[in-house]
Amino acid sequence: MILKSGSLRLVGWSNSGTDLILQNSSGPMKAGPIDFDLEMVSMKGGSQTIATLTDVHADTMTLSPDRLSVAFVARRSDKDDIWVLILKSRETRKITNNGNTRTFYSSLEWSPTGKTIFFDKQEQVNTISMFENFN
User: Fold this and answer.
1) Which domain covers residue 49, as residue numbers?
2) Which of 7, 27, 39, 110 is the most buried (most CB within 10 A)?
3) Average pLDDT of the chain to the nearest whole number
4) Which helix (H) or strand (E) holds 92?
5) What 3-state class would DSSP assign to 60?
């Protein structure tokens, strides 16, 4: 197995349950957008690159409940958007169309069915929002 000498971040187990999915960056994982390879690493040895991703907020990479897709936030053209990568086909799809350079997405979470992605949306750096008395 050959992995870059940099930073690794565990995304989760593959759908087969025999491989790990890792983020593999040649530099440090940081809060801002970075470039990294998404790798499938076999427990028997060996690895393969699933995708090379650019300008991604590394801490937003989230594996779907069926472990067939990952969702992440990428900052392209100075705007955050949520993307989904289908692991088997390696197809990526942008699922938001953010028109504001000051709107930021984070904290992605798949619903148990895998049909919905929940997320935080922050529009001002100095504002904290809170939900109260919800059922």
Assistant:
1) 7-122
2) 39
3) 88
4) strand 91-94
5) helix
